[in-house]
Amino acid sequence: MTSFDRMIALKRRIASREAAIGIIGMGYVGLPLALLFSEERFKVTGFDIDARKVETLNAGGSYIVRIPATEIELARQTGFRATADYSQIAQMDVVIVCVPTPLNEYHEPDLSFVSGTMRSIAPHLREGQLIVLESTTYPGTTEEIVAPLLEQGNQAGLRVARDAESSGFYVAFSPEREDPGNDTVARRDIPKVVGGCGPVALEFASAVYSSIFNRTVPVSSPAAAEMTKLLENIYRCVNIALVNELKQLCMRMDIDLFEVIDAAKTKPFGFQAFYPGPGLGGHCIPIDPFYLSWKARQFDFHTRFIELAGEVNSAMPYFVVEHIIEALSQQRKALCGSRILILGMAYKRDIDDLRESPSLTIIELLQKRGATVAYNDPFFPTVGQGRKYALNMTSTPIEKIPEFDCVVIATDHSQYNYQAIVSSAQLVVDTRNATRGIDSEKIVRC
Ligand SMILES: NC(=O)c1ccc[n+]([C@@H]2O[C@H](COP(=O)([O-])OP(=O)(O)OC[C@H]3O[C@@H](n4cnc5c(N)ncnc54)[C@H](O)[C@@H]3O)[C@@H](O)[C@H]2O)c1
After folding, report:
1. Does the C-beta of 348 come closer than 6 Å to ligand 1?
2. Is the shortest distance between the CB of 181 and ligand 1 below 6 Å?
3. Residue 231: how many other CB atoms lie within 10 Å
4. What is the DSSP string of 216-264?
5. pLDDT at position 166 over 90
6. Does 353 score more than 80 pLDDT?
7. In this structure, what DSSP letter does residue 266 have?
8. What is the pLDDT of residues 150-161, one digit of tens each?
9. How far is it, in rounded angstroms, from Cα 226 to Cα 160?
């Protein structure tokens, strides 16, 4: 069978929904993707090294707030299963990898999850399979890391098939464009960018994604697809830094930047609104740009916009803490010994994700300065230990607000009643403009 014949056969299997889809990494990206394939009647296997996740999914449960257990149960009825057993990779036609790509303690790309995954799947590869990386990473990862690891790790000596004449397996990159908490665009309607290691891989990957997305956007190489994702996130990172800096200037000039942004966004072209806040959070915007900065050094190039944006954004939690100190001192109180309640641990409104959340940094800074800190977040009854924090705290009931010297609105969850919060609090430091329209001397906006 030539590569071309294999592709025709696989396209047929995709069209008839017989193609077996394996998704590695059942997290915020991988699980929704698995459900999307499942909705389209594909038989999906989710792979994860976290035994708790595998167990929960196989019991029909969910661990992501916005995914109800009923959706998992529905997927299970079309054959969705989770496993930690990599030998099942051999039964898949398509394997999509959605594992974390964090930064290490030196702020450098940590590709250990990606390379670990490739080493695990390589021994089980077979001819004609398609492997797609979705994890955000620097341009070159698919060609320089993924493809070589897959080739080295399989005993059958299979190679990446780069054209219609070659045999082997296919490799592509397709970035995830999930925007947690944003329900304005249906997942299907988000165009899917795809870059393949060769034209057959590109065609193959485009056919797979066309079955669950309304539009695919083919680009000339995996590196172009990798760079596309970074451009999108760097664009956000730089623009958020711009408004964070302008907020500081506007506060000195006694101008309400939120009012200015609202006015500016009435312009029907050439302007997109970004909003200031207490700092960046999430797995993407605070991290991804530095993947490119790191790679750029190999080309003797300094990504100054990224570095500057990083500097401005990472200073924001310190800026918030300064304003808490100032607000308390106006009430003749010192931060040391004060009781502070942080409202919102999630890095943004109405989601259950606290990775890189500025609330974590703000809490750490306040504790270091001698404050007694508690939090409330409807999405996090408890906050234990993460890679960069060890809080081991329990959410404080909102009714206890009067007991605190200061309440800090760090995340503007929509279920909070801001009028009631202001009424019952002694002092409110609002980092999100959530109290807009409420007139009270107790509010300090920063
Ligand atoms: N969360 C988002 O909104 C978002 C948006 C766009 C892109 N991304 C990118 O997608 C990727 C995944 O992000 P996420 O938010 O889903 O991460 P996540 O931490 O929620 O999920 C990753 C999952 O991978 C599993 N895992 C790690 N190593 C594994 C291995 N060797 N084998 C099997 N499973 C393994 C983990 O246990 C975890 O369940 C990252 O590169 C991220 O930058 C995330």
Report:
1. no
2. no
3. 12
4. EEEESSHHHHHHHHHHHHHHHHHHHHHHHHHHHHHHHHT--HHHHHHHH
5. no
6. yes
7. T
8. 999 998 899 999
9. 19
Residue owning the nearest CA to atom 30 of ligand 1: 117
Question: Which ranges constitute the DSSP H helices of 298-417?
Answer: 304-314, 316-330, 358-368
pLDDT of residue 309: 97
Q: Which atom of ligand 1 is found nearest the CA of 284? A: 43
Instruction: State the greatest distance between any 2 C-alpha atoms of the chain, in Å, as a whole number.
Output: 81
pLDDT for res 182: 83
Which residue has a Cα nearest atom 21 of ligand 1?
27
How close are the terminal C-alpha atoms of the chain, in Å? 65
What's the gap in Å between 202 CA and the centre of ligand 1?
A: 23
Tokens of 437: 């329209």
Q: Determine if ligand 1 sits within 6 Å of the CB of residue 222.
A: no
| Helix (H) and strand (E) counts in the chain | 15, 15
List Cβ neighbours of 73 (8 Å cut-off, separation of 6 or more): 60
What is the pTM (predicted TM-score) of this model? 0.94
What DSSP line would sit under 345-376, residue for residue? -SSSTT----TT-HHHHHHHHHHHTT-EEEEE
- Smallest CA-to-CA distance from 131 within 48, 217, 187, 198 is with 198
pLDDT in tens, 90-143: 999 999 999 999 999 888 999 999 999 999 999 999 999 999 999 999 999 999
58 pLDDT above the threshold of 80: yes
CA angle 226, 152, 117 (to 5 degrees): 55
Residue 386: predicted pLDDT: 80
Residue with tokens 């309304």: 214
Which tens digits make up the pLDDT trace of 365-393?
Answer: 999 999 999 999 999 999 998 877 888 99
